[in-house]
Amino acid sequence: MSTAPFAPFDLCIIGAGPGGFAGAMRAVDAGRRVCLIEADEIGGTGVKWGALASKTMWELAKDYAVAAKRDRGYRCRDLQVSYSAVRATVMTAIEEKQQQMRRQLAVFAEGRRTAPGSIAYLQGRGRLAGDDRVAIALNDGTEREIRADNILIVTGSKPRRFAHIPVDQQRIFDSDGILDLQRFPPRLMIIGAGVTGCEYATIFSNFGQTKVFLVDHQEMILPYEDTDVSAFVSRNLEHSGVTILHSARLRDIDQNSDHLEVALDFADGNETVVAVDAVLISIGRDPNTRGLGLASAGIVPDAAGFLDCDADCRVRGRIYAAGDVTHRPALVNMAVMESRHAVKHMFRLPTRPLSFPNMSTVMFFNPAVAAVGLNEKGCRQRGLTYRVATYTNALLPRAIAMRATRGFVKIIVSDDDQQKILGMRAAGPQVSSTIMTIALLIDQDMDVREVVGSMFPHPTMSEVIQECLRLLMGKSIYKPEAFPDHLTIRRWHPTP
Predict the structure, then answer these.
(1) Can you tell me the mean pLDDT for 312-336?
(2) Within a 10 A sphere around the Cβ of 495, how many other Cβ atoms?
(3) Residues recognised as catalytic
(4) Number of H helices, E strands in the chain
(5) What remark does the entry make about the cofactor (predicted)?
(6) N or C, which end of the chain is more exposed by having fewer CB within 10 Å?
(7) Which residues carry a binding-site annotation?
(8) How many other CB atoms are there within 10 angstroms of residue 20's CB atom?
(9) Four-CA torsion 166, 168, 173, 175, nearest 10 degrees
(10) Is the dihedral of CA 392, 365, 229, 334 positive or negative?
């Protein structure tokens, strides 16, 4: 193993996914010398198998579903789709993003920069060899050891698997291998009804080539969400032809020459066997912390492999962690925020404490669902008194024009004089943009009255936010007395 004779790096980052890449660039902004290590491909899961790949598929499936509609004043006579063509488009999108990342790494490569701040990008598997050393098994078969004043672990996660079910990525897939499909399976069973499972159920049902079975081990999908949100998503999936099997657990998969027989056990004691052509296992993700040499730096992960961090993402000494390897939500935007914060903290750059009340996420269903802040379950668990208003898209001019009136906005505010915005759930077109208005309001700790007087553009989906807030104040243009099925307002107080 060769040991570099030159001065130690200011920072070594293990993992070049979205979080690691963002952390590296923030360190370059500060004029630091960075070593960025990636065992697989630049962009990690967030680009190759995760968010970018699945959302590209989702966009293609959404477009196909719209083209197949018969209520638009037009009709496609010869609408065809092949999985190989879909896959090729997805791979093009992946390569575009990877090429952008490679281009930037080349610009800031060590030895090519005259200004302060550089990145040495090494392709290989890194592991800790002490508090300030990282050993790298390079992909060319050689080994190298480097020293760094700071280390940031952003190695992401991998799909969780059943111990008794082999994933061959031929007929039994996980989310990292679903692109290996050769064609649309006539029948697909998805095990796991969390966000990823529901997103792939949406994708395959939208393409209209596959009968989808979605297995949920609980009574309702998305159990962490409020009942109205879960029920809304369930209805839309079922409307798209998805069969949801609630309170069911996978017992076994029998592989026959031309199909799979999936045995399920139900909570009420019943059982069934469903014949399908492919199975997607989507039961969560596990952190990529094995083989990192954590013990050599005195770091002990928890039983599930996660790393415990303080409020500044520090694990121990000058070693930090961000993204899926921590206990925080496994989201790309979370990994990016944590990585950038960790870099600012380690180099004593101006920063403010990490805060997550305005953490937003988008679930790409049909239609999409966005979330920020607390839902009603969260408020009740905290014993918060609140008021909640729901305004459906059926009354929104932009949604009517788009012929996309399925959906709603639901805003929760504190039931006091301040009327602070606690959270929001939104379903429908363009919710990924709509949600950011409320995220900003939560971040700025603003109350309802500071928003309702603003002028929103018309016709836009964002107008629903203003009208929903007006509804909370009793000043909405459309009234619940006239539209009780579309406009509701409730309050909840903890029981004394």
Answers:
(1) 96
(2) 5
(3) 458
(4) 11, 25
(5) Binds 1 FAD per subunit.
(6) C
(7) 55, 126, 155-157, 192-199, 284, 324
(8) 30
(9) 100
(10) negative
DSSP code for 420: B
Distance CA 54, CA 332 (A): 13
CA distance 28 to 147: 18
Residues in the chain: 496
- Please check whether residue 194 is in contact with residue 284, taking contact to mean a CB–CB distance below 8 angstroms: yes
Tokens 């990292």 correspond to: 176
CB-based contact 194:159 (threshold 8 Å):
no
Q: How far apart are CA 421 and CA 442, in angstroms?
A: 6
301, 143 Cβ separation under 8 angstroms: no
Instruction: Say yes or no to pLDDT of 3 above 60.
Output: no
Q: Are 412 and 438 in contact (CB under 8 A)?
A: no
CA distance 490 to 409: 14
pLDDT greater than 70 at residue 438: yes
Q: What is the pTM of this model?
A: 0.94
First to last CA, the chain: 67
The values of phi and psi at residue 53, to 5°, are: -65, -50
State whether residue 384 is helix, strand or coil: coil
- What mean pLDDT do residues 125-131 have? 97
Assign 449 to helix, strand or coil: helix
Rounded mean pLDDT, 34-56: 94
CB 39 within 8 A of CB 89: no
